Amino acid sequence: MHIAEGFLPPAHAIGWTVAAAPFVVHGARAVVREVRENPESTLLLGAAGAFTFVLSAIKLPSITGSSSHPTGTGAGAILFRPPVMALLGTVVLLFQALLLAHGGLTTLGANAVAFAVVGPWVGYGAYRLTRALGGGLLPGVFAGTAVADLATYVTTSLQLALAFPDPTGGLAGAVVKFLGVFGVTQIPLAIGEGLLGVLLFRALTVNARPELERLGVLRPAAPAAEGPA
Amino acid sequence: MSGLAIDDAAWSSAWRWRSPTDKLLLCLGLVVCASVLPAWPGDVLVGATATALALGPARVPPRIFGRAVRLPMTFIALGTVTAVLSIDDGGIGWAPDAAERAGSLAGSALAGSTAVLLLATTTPISDLLPALRRLGVPAAVVEVASVVYRLVFVLLDSLRTIREAQTARMGYSSLRRTYRSSGALAAAVLTRSWDRARRLQEGLAGRGMETGLRVLPEVLPSSWVFLGATALGVGAIVSVSVALS
C-alpha cells in the first residue's frame, strides 16, 4: 500500500521526508562504516536490498479473493536489523517507484517512514519481545513479520488521515475510514506475510543455518560432545 | 530484455542518450507543477505534456506507458474515494465538496505519476545513480544501490525459473501448497542472493578489489536546448494555470 506520487499535499510530503531523513542518514552512516571496514559488505548489502525488492514479486493469495505482495520489511528487519533496513528499504522504495510505478518521488519520505522505519522497528520489537517471552524462532518470526506489515498499514492510514481529515469526524474519523477501507486487504495480507515468514525461516534453518548464525538470528550450535572411543 | 517492462522501455527509449540530469530536472519540474498547481488546468497540462513527451520524442511504446500509468490507479481510486467520504452520526456520505476534492486529488496524483513515469521510462536507474553521487549521497550507499539494481534482475530470473518448476509440480494448486511453495521460493531466492554475492565478492577480490567497485562512468553531456525548452515549457504550464484558474 504505497502512497502514490502526488497524492499527499506538498507540506505533508516535505514533512514526512524530513521525518524519514534522520533514520535514513543513520542507516547510511552504518552502511558507510560497514563498507569502509569490510568492502565485501557492499555485495551482501546489495543482495539484501535486491531480495527485499524481489519479495514484492511474490504474490500471496488473500482471503478476500485478491492477491497482493508481502512488504518484506519484517523479514528484512529480523535478518539485517532495522537501522540497515531504513536505508535498504528507502533504496527499494525508490526502485519500486521507478521500476514498478509503486509509490513516488515526492511521497518517498512518507513511504519510507511507513515501510523502512516504523514497519521494521515495530516488527523487530515484536520479534524480540516474542523471543524474550520464551517463544521460539518461528513464533517470533510470525509475530515480527505480521506486526511489521500491520504497523506499515496503520502508519500509512495515519499519514493519509492527517493529510485528509474527515470534514465532520476530524482526524479520528479519517483514521477509522482509512483503516477500515485498507484493512479489508491489509489484515489478511499481514497474516499471510506472517505465515510466509514462518515458511521462509523454516526453510532457511534447514538450508542456510550457517548464514542465520552469522547474522545472529540463530545461536551457533554447540559442538557435539565427544563420546568414548 | 530485463523482464521489467518499465526498465526495458528506459533502455530502448530515444531519450536514453540524453543527460540524466536534464531529464531529472524536466520531470522534477513537472512533478512540482502537479503538486502545487490546481487540477484544472495545471494537472491536465502536466499529464498531457508528460504523456506527449513520452510517446512522442522519447518514443516509449504506448502499450507499456499506458499499462504503467494504470498501475497506481487502484490506490489513487481507493484513496480518493475514501478521502472524500464523510462519517457522521447519520452514517457514511459524501463530503460537501466531494466532487471538486476528488478531482483535485486524483488529478494531482495522476499528473505526478505520469511525470515520474516519463523519467522512469526514459532513464535506466544505472544512469540516475551517478547523479545521486553528485547530489552528495555517499559513494558506499550509491554502490550498494548499484549492486541492488544489478542483482534484482538476476534474482527475478531465478524467481521465475523456480516458480515455473514449482507450478509444473502442482506447487500452486491449492492455498496450502501456494503458501508452502511461496515460502520455499523466498528462501531459495535469498540463499541464491547470498551465493551470488559471495561469488561476486570472491571474483572481485581475485581482481584486487580493495576500495570499492570502480567503473568508468558513461558521460552524457547536458543540452542547453533541452534545458531551455524545459524552462520554457514548465514556465508556460505555470503561466497558463495561473491565468486560467
TrEMBL record, chain A:
What protein name applies here?
Cobalt transport protein CbiM
Name the Pfam families on file: CbiM
- Could you tell me which pathway this protein works in? Cofactor biosynthesis; adenosylcobalamin biosynthesis
* Provenance organism: Blastococcus mobilis
Q: Does the keyword NAD apply?
A: no
Membrane topology is: Multi-pass membrane protein
**Membrane-spanning parts:** 43-63, 84-102, 108-127, 134-154, 174-201
Q: Transmembrane as a keyword?
A: yes
Its annotated function is as follows:
Part of the energy-coupling factor (ECF) transporter complex CbiMNOQ involved in cobalt import.
Q: Which InterPro entries match?
A: CbiM, CbiM/NikMN
Q: Which terms does the UniProt entry file under GO BP?
A: cobalamin biosynthetic process
The protein's assembly and partners: Forms an energy-coupling factor (ECF) transporter complex composed of an ATP-binding protein (A component, CbiO), a transmembrane protein (T component, CbiQ) and 2 possible substrate-capture proteins (S components, CbiM and CbiN) of unknown stoichimetry.
UniProtKB/TrEMBL annotation, chain B:
Q: One Pfam family name from the record?
A: CbiQ
Give the GO biological process terms. Answer: cobalt ion transport
| Cellular component terms (Gene Ontology) | ATP-binding cassette (ABC) transporter complex
Primary place of residence?
membrane
Annotated membrane topology is: Multi-pass membrane protein
Taxonomically, which superkingdom? Answer: Bacteria
From the Swiss-Prot or TrEMBL record, give the protein name. Cobalt/nickel transport system permease protein
Organism expressing this protein natively:
Blastococcus mobilis
